[in-house]
Design a protein that fits this description.
heterodimer; A: 231 residues; alpha/beta; five-stranded parallel beta sheet; four-stranded antiparallel beta sheet; 43% helix; globular; B: 899 residues; six-stranded parallel beta sheet; 25 strands
Chain lengths: 231, 899
């Protein structure tokens, strides 16, 4: 394998899931490393220095949160968590600990690939972010702080723009309420989720063709929001 | 008692005999070493037998053995396991008793228990050692025990007559009757020799004993008693053996004995005598008390004595019975004839001759009318002479001064009237006016005041009307006679009227009791809930008998207080132990009973024909006996009624439980049907698609392959939804739903739900109608989103493709209202209430819709978790269904508690 191919570490104790991920990712030209337990995962991460980790939270030996913490202690490797429906608290906790995104089992492969791409793109962007963002009819010019929908310029308040900017920087990635409050309202997480919702509603009024059925800013129930990104 | 006539019917073993034999199998066996007097060597013999048994390999332990310091006896104890005795502190001393719990825990095959008649220290479980032994036997342990002949209940007074020493500690005959008896025989000379040698008592005690108790005459008589008793026992054993083995024998004629007891002090002797006669005749016997109206006037002491005598008779193996009656002799004979009694035993009257002349003599009547029934008349001795004469309570009734004052006023009024009449008419029979006053007094106040009024009338009549007037002297002898007869008539009138009054009062009291019992039973019949029933029972017993009542019912293998009046939740340990014992053994325990008499309350089992249903605990603040026999009977009547009612509710509860179980069963089977159908259908399609593609993938064109895969994907997603529903339902059922309210935007909520339902709704037009400028509402986003998804899913399932599905939201007062409308066929009105039930699906129409029957039930559960309601209706504007969710938004709920 060429060293340019991104290396993905798959951590799951279920062989069928590993096999599915391995086959799917292999045809997408990813290099695959597998681990069935938390300990194996940490060893592999140290040895292989993967570009991305897909981590199942329910491993037999180590708690998923422990693994995220251990991984984060050493590197900024993007982590996409596999979790189950109904475990919103676990998702938020994983994201707060530094996981980048999650996919809910059972998942479609399209969804997983989108998450992986978003997570990898974000890492690349940190090294040199692109000034112009474009997704469907939405265009955001980060240099000139200009936003347009379908070529028509939209005027945003400064807070609305700050929020949108966070979405654009993390395009395709889920952002927790806590993350948005911290980045937009500054540091503390004592900010008001309700106020955030009001701003989201206003943003949708301005950006969405049908605010009742948003296409750009999607709600992740119980977790946060996500800016839909389709290049 | 041995039932004789049943066996004489044929050669088959009588069922009674077989049953008794079976009962004896399960119980432990008792062997009694019976001695005529202390010192004959009972304990020695028992220990020797025990050693032999031990040598045979039987597990023998010593429960309690008194060696009295005798060397040979102590030597025999060597090598036998002795259960340590229990120490009981009593009035500064430490007493030791057999530790029955330790013995029961040890569970040997055979226990040695010395001195069967021993009285246990206060605070022991049973007041008597023989009761300990009974419990051991009941638990299946064999017992060897010793007892002296003077302690056998029915021989108690015979021994007292012989030796002039009355022993207080007695063993009921039924214990001896049920045991194998071995007489430890020693000739009087040998025994006296042993005494002299100091083998029984130490020297000077022995001297004293020899002079009194151990005189050769006494010893000979006692020895004869012991041997005779044992012989009777052997006789009985032979009879029962012959019955069990269906050996036809020369059965004695079926004698049946009736002992008529009275409240007189000699009655206990009468009962013991009856027992001995019955034993000799091998016949059953009954102790009978005829309750005449006079019984009501008896003092508490006499009533207690009657109850005690009846209990003694029961202890001695008699059937006991109280029958109401007017004339003792007639009622007695009527009962005797009805029940084929062949002999009647009755006590000689101790009443004065004048009393018998006035009231008639029961014994004389009985002898005259008995016909072919033999009558034994037994003289009262010793004990009776000491007893206080019978006094009726009427004589001790407290003197009511007002009654006497008003009686005086009656006489004064009569005097006034008489004086007035005599002004106008010269009436010879003016005394009749006074008679009216006496009568009035008798009717109102009974015997005392009316006799007083009679005497007063005599004096007034004499003073005012008999010449010489205004003196108490009487000139004319004819007037003396007149006055004398007036007095007789006045007294007779007063006595007759007073008695009528007393009987009327008794009748009224009984009528009231009957009335209360009747209304109680009616009340019980109307109560369906066990707790109400128990409370009503406690209240009724408490108020009718003026006692404190607790009721206990079984609860998790033990029993617990369920009701009380006055309300009581807790019992102290002693009471709880007594209640538990009562429940376990189905016998009375606690205050005044044989078992655990140290408890504060008396506990009685509430019994029905099918067994005990609970325990009744009774306490009365006043010390002394808890009940008079009348009260005891009333209590029995009340508790019988209560027991039947309790059983009825328990049975009803059982039926309810069975119904709930059946309902659960129905749900479970629906679940299984649903699960197997709804899991298998998508799996069948997925597995089918995959196997088909693997085998013939190359044969399909791209379009077909794509279509098959899309189907598999859809089915997979359907399966996923179904599993999610099952999980949600499980969470709801187990109460694991945790509400996380946060301020949410209804638009956000609806949008998210539509996004998740995108695939399901692909064939429908969806319109969203949210009121502008809606405020945020405190709702759980995830739960409400699931509710909407389920409603949309439901709408998509029933409404035809291409039709419109509408979602609307608005605030209405303090409620948030969300509606989901469709343009489907609507819901049959009869199903409107039921569609939210688990596994309920609307039938009819063209076909059964695919679905779990869980979606709407989950909706209802999640909405209810918010304190809201969900309702289904048919649209009024066009056909189609509309589901309306209403969730109250109050100030308290308006604060988000998440994040």
């Amino acid at each position: 394998m060429a060293s340019s191919a991104p290396c993905v570490l798959i951590v799951d104790d279920e062989p069928p899931i590993r096999r599915l991920l391995r086959n799917t990712l292999a045809v997408q030209e990813y290099r695959i490393v597998e681990a069935a337990t938390g300990q194996e995962a940490l060893d592999a991460a140290r040895r292989e220095k993967p570009d991305l980790v897909i981590l199942d939270l329910g491993l037999p030996d180590l708690d998923g949160m422990e693994i995220i913490r251990a991984l984060r202690a050493r590197s900024q490797v993007p982590i996409v968590v596999l979790s189950s429906r109904g475990d919103e608290k676990g998702k938020v906790a994983a994201l707060d600990l530094g996981a980048d995104d999650y996919v809910t089992k059972p998942f479609g492969v399209d969804e997983l690939m989108a998450r992986i791409r978003a997570a990898l793109r974000h890492r690349l962007q940190e090294q040199g972010s692109r000034p112009l963002f474009q997704s469907a009819d939405l265009t955001v010019d980060l240099v000139h702080r200009r936003v347009s929908v379908g070529g028509r310029e939209v005027r945003l308040s400064p807070k609305e723009y700050d929020i949108l900017q966070q979405f654009v920087i993390h395009a395709g990635k889920v952002l927790t309420h806590r993350h948005l409050l911290k980045e937009v309202w500054g540091g503390v997480d004592s900010g008001d989720v309700q106020a955030l919702r009001v701003f989201i509603r206003q943003l949708r009024q301005k950006l969405e063709a049908d605010p009742q059925r948003p296409q750009h800013i999607l709600t992740e129930p119980g977790v946060g929001y996500r800016l839909q990104f389709s290049a | 008692m041995v039932e004789l006539d049943s066996a004489s019917r044929g050669l088959r073993p009588s069922p009674e005999a077989l049953l008794a034999a079976a009962a004896r199998e399960a119980r432990g066996k008792l062997k009694i070493f019976l001695g005529a007097a202390p010192g004959v060597g009972k304990t020695y013999e028992m220990l020797q037998s025990a050693r032999r048994r031990k040598a045979e390999g039987v597990d023998v332990v010593v429960g309690v053995v008194e060696t009295h310091g005798r060397k040979e006896t102590e030597a025999l104890l060597e090598g036998l396991e002795v259960i340590p005795r229990r120490q009981i502190a009593y009035e500064g001393r430490v007493l030791t008793e057999m530790d029955i719990d330790a013995v029961l825990a040890r569970r040997p095959a055979l226990v040695l228990v010395d001195e069967l008649a021993h009285t246990n220290a206060p605070g022991s479980r049973h007041p008597k050692r023989y009761l300990d032994v009974e419990e051991l036997l009941a638990s299946g342990v064999d017992v060897y025990a010793t007892v002296n002949i003077q302690h056998v209940e029915s021989l108690n007074d015979v021994v007292a007559q012989i030796t002039r020493v009355r022993v207080r500690e007695t063993v009921p005959d039924r214990i001896v009757d049920a045991a194998e008896v071995e007489v430890i025989d020693l000739t009087p000379d040998d025994l006296i020799q042993r005494l002299r040698e100091g083998k029984v008592y130490i020297a000077d005690q022995a001297e004293r004993a020899l002079k009194h108790y151990f005189s050769p005459g006494n010893l000979t008589a006692l020895r004869e008693l012991a041997l005779r008793r044992a012989a009777e026992r052997v006789d009985e054993q032979m009879v029962s053996y012959m019955q069990e083995h269906a050996i036809a024998g020369p059965w004695p004629a079926g004698e049946r004995l009736l002992v008529c007891i009275s409240e007189q002090p000699g009655a206990t002797q009468l009962v013991r005598y009856g027992k001995r006669v019955a034993d000799r005749l091998h016949g059953p016997w009954t102790a009978l008390y005829v309750e005449t109206p006079r019984h009501q006037r008896l003092g508490e002491a006499e009533r207690d004595r009657v109850a005690e005598v009846l209990r003694l008779a029961e202890k001695l193996g008699a059937d006991t019975l109280t029958i109401p009656g007017q004339r003792i002799a007639d009622d007695l004979l009527a009962y005797a004839r009805e029940n084929n009694a062949t002999q009647i035993i009755i006590g000689k009257s101790t009443r004065a001759r004048w009393f018998e002349m006035l009231h008639g003599s029961v014994v004389h009547d009985l002898l005259r009318k008995a016909g072919n029934i033999s009558v034994h008349v037994i003289g009262a001795a010793g004990e009776a002479a000491l007893a206080t004469p019978v006094k009726t309570s009427a004589g001790m009734e407290s003197i009511d001064p007002i009654a006497y004052a008003i009686s005086t006023a009656f006489v004064a009024a009569a005097l006034g009237v008489a004086l007035l009449i005599s002004q106008f008419v010269d009436l010879d029979n003016i005394s009749l006016v006074f008679l009216a006053a006496v009568l009035a007094s008798a009717v109102r106040y009974g015997a005392g005041p009316s006799v007083f009024a009679a005497l007063l009338s005599v004096l007034c009549y004499n003073f005012f009307f008999i010449p010489p007037l205004y003196t108490f002297t009487i000139a004319d002898p004819a007037n003396v006679v007149a006055l004398f007869f007036f007095m007789i008539v006045a007294l007779l009138t007063s006595s007759l009227t007073a008695r009528t009054r007393t009987q009327a009062l008794i009748a009224k009291k009984q009528a009231r009791t009957t009335g209360e019992l009747y209304s109680f039973s009616k009340k019980l019949a109307g109560i369906a809930k066990l707790d109400d029933l128990l409370w009503a029972t406690a209240h009724q017993i408490a108020s009718m008998l003026k006692v404190e009542v607790v009721l206990l019912t079984p609860d998790d293998g033990t029993i617990a207080v369920r009701a009380g009046f006055p309300p009581e939740d807790q019992l102290d340990d002693a009471d709880l132990a007594a209640a538990k014992w009562c429940w376990d053994h189905n016998q009375p325990a606690g205050r005044g009973a044989d078992t655990l008499p140290g408890a504060k309350r008396l506990f009685l089992p509430l019994r029905t024909g099918r067994g005990a249903v609970g325990v009744l605990g009774i306490n009365r603040k006043a010390p002394g006996p808890l009940f008079t026999p009348d009260e005891r009977r009333l209590l029995d009547a009340l508790s019988d009624q209560a027991a039947v009612a309790i059983e009825r509710t328990l049975l009803a509860e059982d039926i309810d439980e069975a119904r709930i179980l059946a309902e659960t069963e129905r749900l479970r089977s629906s679940l299984l049907t649903s699960v197997s159908h709804d899991l298998r259908t998508p799996l069948a399609s997925i597995i089918g698609t995959i196997t088909s593609l693997r085998s013939f993938g190359k044969l399909y064109d791209d379009r077909t392959r794509d279509e098959m895969l899309a189907t598999a994907q859809d089915e997979g997603e359907r399966l996923n939804r179904f599993v999610a529903n099952l999980l949600d339902m499980t969470r709801l059922d187990s109460g694991a739903i945790e509400l996380r309210r946060e301020m949410i935007d209804l638009g956000d909520l609806v949008g998210s739900a539509l996004q998740r339902s995108g695939k399901i709704l692909i064939r429908h037009r969806v319109s969203v109608d949210l009121a502008p400028d809606l405020p945020m509402f405190p709702l759980d986003f995830l739960l409400m989103e699931q509710v909407l998804v389920n409603l949309l899913d439901n709408a998509a399932k029933y409404a035809p493709a291409g039709s419109a599905i509408g979602v609307a939201g608005r605030g209405e007062g303090a409620e948030v209202v969300i509606e989901v409308r469709d343009e489907g066929p609507g819901i049959p009105p009869s199903d409107l209430d039921r569609i939210f039930d688990k596994f309920y699906r609307v039938h009819g129409g063209d076909r059964q819709r695919a679905g779990t029957g869980l979606g709407l039930a989950i909706c209802r559960g999640f909405v209810a978790a918010h304190g809201g309601t969900i309702a289904a209706a048919n649209r009024s504007d066009r056909h189609g269904a509309v589901f309306t969710i209403r969730i109250p938004i109050d100030e308290a709920g308006a604060r988000p508690d998440g994040e």
